[in-house]
Amino acid sequence: MNEFYKDCLILDMKPNSIVHRYAVNGKISGNLGAITCLDNALIILVSPIGCGFHYRYTVRARNKLNDVDCVNLKNQEVVFGSHDKLVALIKKLDAEYAPKAIFVVPSVVTDVINDDLTGISNSVQTEVKAKIVVIVSQAFSHMDKSNFTKNLKNTAMQKNSTKQVSNVLYKGCGYVEVMDALVEQVMEPQKIEPNSVNIESFLWGYGGATKLERMQNLLLRMGIKVNTFLPLGDIDSIKIAPKAKLNIVRRKKWAVSMKTRFGTDFFHLAMPFEWHGFDDICEFYREIGKHLDLETSVEKILQEEIEKYKSRYEELKTQNSKRRACIISGGVSNIAETLKAYHKNFGVRVASICVIMNTRFAEENGLDDSIMKRFFAKAEEAKLSMNCDAELYINPSKEKLEVLMQDCDYLICGRNPRYAKLNKPILPMYIDRAAFDFESFMEIMEEVSAKIAEPLQLSNKLLLNCMEFDDIFFPREEKDCNSKASRDIYTEMWRLRKK
Question: What is the pLDDT of residue 334?
Fold first, then answer.
């Protein structure tokens, strides 16, 4: 959890975007991803044995699956319910391992037969020492198909200078089901400690453990204590979570539940990548300071941190501005944030911006012309506000790309091998940019500057470059009509939103 799906994002194994956009990823992976963060807790999956070893459940928790037991439902249990097998397994695990907690996780089968897992677990609770926590199924826990469109429209309408605010309570692919269960079944009323916070330990970027530790240390210097990280720790640390005066959260739904039950206020970060650079780090802590009435002590520490790093920061920005870059993006919705990160905060000198996108993007995602025009306007507004004179090109021809390459020293783009044909070194666009302390940001700054000084040179002699691939849907071959037809059918059946 702390390492933000390290296998997925660093090693390119099971890429996160593909799992979420092109697969119906089982929400049990989210259940396991949250529960395996807890110490001394065992998991019972109430399902047939096949579900217990489905490969997708390893996406988030590939290193701790030895803690999962399966009831192994068969035809008799599907007809008559899981009571006998579940009770027997709970007693067995409690006696053999003496865990602090046993989590009972539902499956599609228990949802369909409406098995009363809560009632079964409550009936055996007095006979075991472990705390039994039942994950209450919220049916389809993945985002609704229309949410991607809603998010795009929301992003289009917000100003570049403001952070995105989410009013949607996402169920979070199983993760939030666990968080809701912790709020409802584990947390207990506490006397609130002033100047204290809980921090959700999820989606802080690669190296999350280090980032959270640094965040904790910085808050401590400001006079703010971290009560607990959620859902890290054990059941005892979860129980006392309501002692905190403020929750700092990535997923909003469970925080709303906790506020309803215990009155705990929360500070929600809908999109972490929007919080980038010195200004946003300061804004992050100032917001926390406002919630806790500690603006003065917060500001003092912020100024100390800025003073410590500003000389080296300005030196690196100057160094980065000596070479010219061309940004190549697969969409227009992220151009404003990309410019903010690379041009404004990293000091990159952007010569041109090329958007190479699916011409049916708006149609497939239910966006009208006004939304697309708003995205283009936002990009132009961002350029103007940041004094960036780069030209924006939409789906430029191969001939135009060759001309643009003459005016840049390197590319900022994905690591797709097709860009090797452009014969320019590459700075990967999707480097982890999220940082919520100055030390972490400066480490990213140093890394980016080193890559700009000596960008990655992809070989243009790769066998892949001897083939003609589709510019948009790499690695589909340009003349592969069958794959194109398959994708079109998939789009019509699944990705198209209701009118």
Answer: 85
Alpha-carbon 240 to chain mean position: 26
Preceding peptide of 475 cis, ω within 30°: yes
Instruction: Quote the tokens at residue 304.
Output: 């100390």
Kindly list the distances between the CA atom of residue 281 and the CA atoms of 7, 305, 337, 437, 456, in Å, as whole numbers in the listed order. 27, 11, 15, 6, 29
Taking every pair of Cα atoms in the chain, the longest distance, rounded to a whole number of angstroms, is: 75
Distance CA 254, CA 176 (A): 6
The tens digit of pLDDT for each residue in 37-90 reads 898 999 999 998 877 665 445 555 555 555 688 999 999 999 999 999 999 999
Q: Coil, strand, or helix at residue 227?
A: strand
Going by the DSSP 8-state scheme, the letter that residue 493 receives in this structure is I
Residue pair 209/1 in contact by the 8 Å Cβ criterion = no
Residue 40 phi/psi, 5° resolution?
55, 45
Residue 284 pLDDT level (bands cut at 50, 70, 90): very high
CB 444 within 8 A of CB 432: yes
pTM of the predicted protein model? 0.85
> Is it the case that residue 475 has pLDDT exceeding 60?
yes
Q: Is 213 helix (H, G, I), strand (E, B) or coil?
A: helix
Q: Indicate the burial class of 440 (C-beta count within 10 angstroms; 0-12, 13-18, 19 or more).
A: buried
Q: How far is residue 298's CA from residue 284's CA, in Å, rounded to a whole number?
A: 10
Rounded mean pLDDT of 249-260?
93
Question: From residue 41, how far is each of 103, 178, 230 by CA, in Å?
Answer: 7, 13, 14
**Sheet-wide strand order for 349-355:** 391-394, 349-355, 324-329, 410-413, 426-428
Rounded to whole angstroms, how far apart are CA atoms 155 and 163?
9
CA pair distance 113, 493, nearest whole angstrom: 28
Residues in the chain, total: 499
Which range is least confidently modeled, 128-142, 239-253, 290-304, 392-406?
Answer: 128-142
DSSP one-letter string for 90-135: HHHHHHHH--SEEEEE--HHHHHHT--HHHHHHHHGGG-SSEEEE-
**What would the DSSP string read from start to end of 300-349?**
HHHHHHHHHHHHHHHHHHHHHTTSEEEEEES-STTHHHHHIIIIIIS--E
Spatial separation of the C-alpha atoms in residues 404 and 80, rounded to whole Å? 68
177 vs 147 pLDDT, higher one: 177
